[in-house]
Amino acid sequence: MPKKDTQWQRCLAYFKANVKEQEYQTWFQPIEFVSYDTGTKELLLAVPSNYFFEMLDGQYKRLVYNVVWRNYDKETRILYRIRTDSANDISMDVEGMPTAAKMREYKEEKLRPMRKAPADDLDSQLNTDYRFENFIEGDSNKLPRSVGQSIAENPKQSTFNPLFIYGSSGVGKTHLLNAIGTRIKELYPSRRVLYVGAHQFTFQFTDASVNNRRNEFVKFYQTIDVLIIDDIQELAGQEKTQLAFFHIFNHLRLNGKQIILASDRAPAAMQGMEERLLTRFKWGLMAELEKPNQELCRKILLSKMRRDGLDIPNEVVDYIVQNVDGSVRDLEGIVNALMAHAVIYNTEINLEVAQQIVRRTVKRQAHTVSIEDIIEACCAQWQVTQDDVFSQSRKANIVLVRQTVMYLAQRHTKLSTSKIGLLVGGRNHATVLHAIAQVKNRLGTSPVYARQVKEVEDQLRERK
Question: pLDDT for 224-237, tens place per residue?
Answer without folding.
Answer: 999 999 999 888 88
